[in-house]
Amino acid sequence: MPRFFCDYCHSYLTHDTPSVRKSHLLGKNHLRLAGDYYCNKARQDQRPFLPRTRKPGRDRRREGKPQLAAVQKTGPQRKFALHCDTNRQKRLSRQSSAIRAQEVAAKCQVLEKLYAKSPGYAKVFRPECRLDTGQSVRLDRAPQRANRRPFGGSNASGSAAADGGGSASNIASAHVTRTVKFSPDYASTRTLALLPPPPSLSQWPSCPPLLLASDRAAATTLRDVTRKLERR
């Protein structure tokens, strides 16, 4: 059975499974060796591949040690420190990312907060409790027409299509329903009307008063003081 060989660590893994390979590639020892490899490669690229061993036309005077001169010219080699996260830091980062993703997935809407304690909250904001047109189409599979009655009545066109012909009473009732003005009943569980605005928004007037300055307080104070003086 072929096993995974790491070129940086020069070692074989115990099993060639994605989990073992992933844990090895994220390990501290592998990251340190891989970082050392690329640092050494960068230093090799900076140096010339074939250094010149002889200078043309050099003088015969004795110079200092070439090794010390080369060290003084190039300077000390730079050391790179790799700071790997501990298992505790990795676990905390995963937990924080999961919590952040959960907060982003949970959509917080303003209307849901406003209608949280209203009697018709479940009928509007719960998809399994909604009784809209799409749900009624899936239940009875009847053709939707403009003369469909709001409270579960059979429409004239749908009855005519299903029975092969419509009676005069159904057509008359449909016309009567279409001419009657609909008054919503918010307390009914079968109503299709929207919820009323919340009391917190309808308690105060929507527009501010146009009276910018008023002498009511001064007039009231003056009247009270005058009455007290008259009583004396």
TrEMBL record:
GO terms for molecular function: pre-mRNA 5'-splice site binding; zinc ion binding. GO terms for cellular component: U1 snRNP. GO terms for biological process: mRNA 5'-splice site recognition. Residues 45-77, 136-168 are annotated as: Disordered. Residues 4-36 form the Matrin-type domain. SMART domains: ZnF_U1. PROSITE patterns: ZF_MATRIN (PS50171). InterPro entries: Matrin/U1-C_Znf_C2H2, Matrin/U1-like-C_Znf_C2H2, U1-CZ_Znf_C2H2, U1_snRNP-C, Znf_C2H2_sf. It is found in: Nucleus. Keywords: Metal-binding, Nucleus, Ribonucleoprotein, RNA-binding, Zinc, Zinc-finger. It comes from the Eukaryota. Pfam families: zf-U1. Residues 152-168 have a biased composition (Low complexity). This is LAME_0C06590g1_1. It comes from Lachancea meyersii CBS 8951. The lineage of its organism: Eukaryota, Fungi, Dikarya, Ascomycota, Saccharomycotina.
